[in-house]
Amino acid sequence: IVLDQGQVAFDGGVEEAVGYYVLSPSKSNSIFPRKINTSLYIQNATIIQGEQTNATNILNDTPLTINVKLNRPLTQGENLEIGFYNDFGDKVAHIGTSLKPHPINPCNKISFYLTKFPFFSGAYAINIAIKRDLDCIDWISNAITFHVENGDFYHSGKYPDSNKTPFLLDFLIK
Questions:
Q1: Taken in order 117, 92, 125, 111, is the CA torsion positive or negative?
Q2: What is the pLDDT of residues 144-160, one digit of tens each?
Q3: pTM for the structure as a whole
């Protein structure tokens, strides 16, 4: 059990409780406080899965969208990067506009679509950064924290063993 100001904030297994505590919003941004750059900054970020906006419990076998709203559209040389961190603070994945060719988006909202979320059950956090060339313009540590629930990732009725690998890969057999 994790308490926050005398109220039960989380009730679950020991590993999940430790992960929840480590990733809790009260712990975020305490070491490196955010300084907003008025020319380009992150306004907000949400995870959408199914009909659930601002999802905090994610199923790993279901598509999800990460939406990030900026104060203005990105221009040439500017990129939006997202890092995924486990409950021990280890970076386990990275996506971003620098990794895939994409058209310059004329609006200030960028959406990342994931057909499945390849992580096992546990607590995770997302850090978001805007980079111009190699300089970090704005960032939010622990911008979104969430818990992944195991689902039928391969649609086979079998659940892979989380002790054998840290994440799942979708694949085809031909």
A1: negative
A2: 999 998 888 888 888 77
A3: 0.77
**79-118: pLDDT as tens digits:** 999 999 998 889 999 999 999 877 777 889 999 999 888 8
Percent share of the chain, pLDDT over 70 = 86
Q: Going edge to edge, which strands form the sheet with 135-149?
A: 57-59, 135-149, 122-132, 78-86, 91-96
